[in-house]
Amino acid sequence: MRNFLGLVLWMGLYIPEDKVCIDESVVPFIGRLVFRQYIKNKSHRYGIKIFKLCAKDYYILQYNVYAGKEDVRQTNISYNTVLKLMEPYLNFGCTLYVDNWYTSVKLAEKLNREKTHLVGTLRANLKNNPENVIKKKLKKGEVIASQSNSNVVVLK
Questions:
Q1: Secondary structure of 84-119 in the HEC alphabet?
Q2: What is the pTM of this model?
Q3: Per residue in 92-122, pLDDT tens?
Q4: What does the alpha-carbon distance between residue 133 and residue 143 come to, in Å, rounded to a whole number?
Q5: pLDDT tens track for 19-69
Q6: What phi, psi does 122 have (nearest 5°)?
């Protein structure tokens, strides 16, 4: 894995140090829009949902405005969002940090093939999760892990 120092200009692309994260935010908006979102547990319930790829010090590298469901949906939205936002930053040895909405074993395997590491929490009910790790009942202080053939490690 490369150790980037600061921002490097490479072919017109700013490459962050080596750690990036993806998360969503809602821009408050109460006007009329087809893709305006309603999220009941937010302080601003109505707004425009934006997915952001960020580096340290709140620097936004890429963003994607969520405009509602697509007509043809081949895979899930979170998987497509991560790949779209990370596309220019693949194969540089970056580490991507995400929450459980984005994390899946399938995504980790795809990013691993692109020389990009994925760190995130994993929902227990997703496909391709290792059964021996997910179903194991642990006592306080115990740890269990499983590594796939594609070098993806799931730890509980």
A1: HHHHHHCCCCCEEEECCCCCCHHHHHHHHHCCCEEE
A2: 0.81
A3: 889 999 999 999 989 999 999 999 999 999 8
A4: 9
A5: 999 998 888 888 888 788 887 887 878 888 899 999 888 788 889 988 776
A6: -125, 130
Map tokens 């991507």 to a residue: 96
DSSP structure class, residue 86: H
CA atoms of 84 and 87, how far apart (whole Å): 5
Token look-up 């995504």 returns: 107
Helix 105-113 × helix 77-86 angle, to 10°: 20
First to last CA, the chain: 25
Q: In this structure, what token pair is assigned to residue 57?
A: 């010090």
Which single residue is written with the structure tokens 């692109």?
Answer: 114
Cβ atoms of 98 and 83 closer than 8 Å = no
Q: What is the C-alpha separation between 78 and 75, in angstroms, rounded?
A: 9
Q: Can you read off the two tokens belonging to residue 69?
A: 């469901």
> How many residues in total does the chain contain?
156
Q: How far apart are CA 107 and CA 113, in angstroms?
A: 10
